[in-house]
Amino acid sequence: MVVERMKDGMDLTCDPAARWWDRETDADLVCLAVHDETPDIRTFTFAGAQGQSFALEAGQYFTFDVPLESGEGAATEPRCYSLSSSALRPRTIAVSVKRVPGGRVSNRLHEALRVGDTIRAMGPSGAFTLPRPLPEKLLLLSAGSGITPMIAMARTLADAAARTDVVFFHAARSLADFAFAADLQALARANPRFRVIFLPEDGSGGHFGPVGRISAELLGALVPDLAARTVLCCGPAPFMAAARAIGVAAGVPQAAWLEESFDLAPVESTVDDAPAKTGFSATFSRQNRTITVGADQTLLSAARAQGVVLPSSCANGLCGTCKARLVSGQVAMAHNGGIRQREIDAGFILPCCARPLTDVVIER
Ligand code: FES
To answer: 128, 139, 180, 192: which has the fewest C-beta neighbours closer than 10 Å?
Structure first.
């Protein structure tokens, strides 16, 4: 269902002198269209507010500064969302956002972001992209909202008229949760080398294919040449762990198994999980909480262990979701591109990959 679409979305001419979106600079996107994919996944389509074109790779994501209230100067929270649009349509980007029970930020986007609104964003980021050169055979294997980078890859492969043999395998709760179903079926109709397999846990609602959870028997039966495929896998951690075990047992080489996860509870060293008794103090000024952070702990893992809630997504210094201002003190930070040097110079840190070197105060 299309919720809203801008009347004069954008200039339809192809301007060879069009400016490119600068991935090193936060800038405004303008929302051109909003539509529902499933009862809880909504797609937002954006253009650069200055008409910029985007240089992208399928599988990448943008980090959005999501306003938590209305009006000028509203508090924002960063969140990264994978692109669901083709990387080969550079004038617009789309993200498909799932409502999360109790999730303030995604739910806020659903409720408040309207056609014509602008939103600050940075990107694209992320290294979970289509392998180059393209392998002969791919398996795009996803569950839940892990489908988003996969649909971007499928659309990009279609736009490139790629000769790769693709199996698109998606697991979800029920038929109603199968996002992009019509588009995927259209891609399959247009290309005999593109096959879609949908695996709902709940078989009601008119689904005539396989039902249940991913298993070696099921995947082996549906994708008998699994070991000959390069696998891109994205979804909740338990799904990815189960899928990986099946892949290893089936003989998929390690180098041919690529993963992405934006789980809210990423796997971390168990060393970090216990509340520390000795270490530096970390004060989270907005929550008026002070905790002790051990020598082996990141600020995020110590906060989690002691019940301080911080926004986070990748927990690996990649996405920028946890970015916060360091009010005082010093940290050692080993990030993976989720923060820019000028932000570090302005006093921001990523608590997921920062260990205190002194007592610290953080604006969170
Ligand atoms: S949670 Fe992704 S950079 Fe910190």
So the answer is: 192
Which segments of the chain are extended strands (E)? Answer: 2-5, 27-38, 41-48, 61-67, 76-82, 93-98, 118-125, 137-143, 165-172, 194-200, 230-234, 257-260, 280-284, 289-293, 324-328, 331-333, 348-349, 354-356, 360-363
**239-251 pLDDT, tens per residue?**
999 999 999 999 9
pLDDT by residue (tens digit) across 305-349? Answer: 888 888 777 778 887 878 899 999 999 998 887 887 888 999 999
Instruction: Write the residue with the smallest CA distance to atom 3 of ligand 1.
Output: 317
Atom of ligand 1 nearest to the CA of 315: 1
- Kindly state if the Cβ of 230 falls inside 6 Å of ligand 1: no
Question: Is the CB of residue 78 below 6 angstroms from any atom belonging to ligand 1?
Answer: no
Question: In the predicted model, what is the mean pLDDT of residues 175-185?
Answer: 95
- Residue 2 reports pLDDT greater than 80: no
Whether the CB of 301 sits within 6 Å of ligand 1 = no
Residue 191 Cβ contacting ligand 1 at under 6 Å: no
Any ligand 1 atom below 6 A from CB of 317? yes
Q: How far apart are CA 96 and CA 362, in angstroms?
A: 31
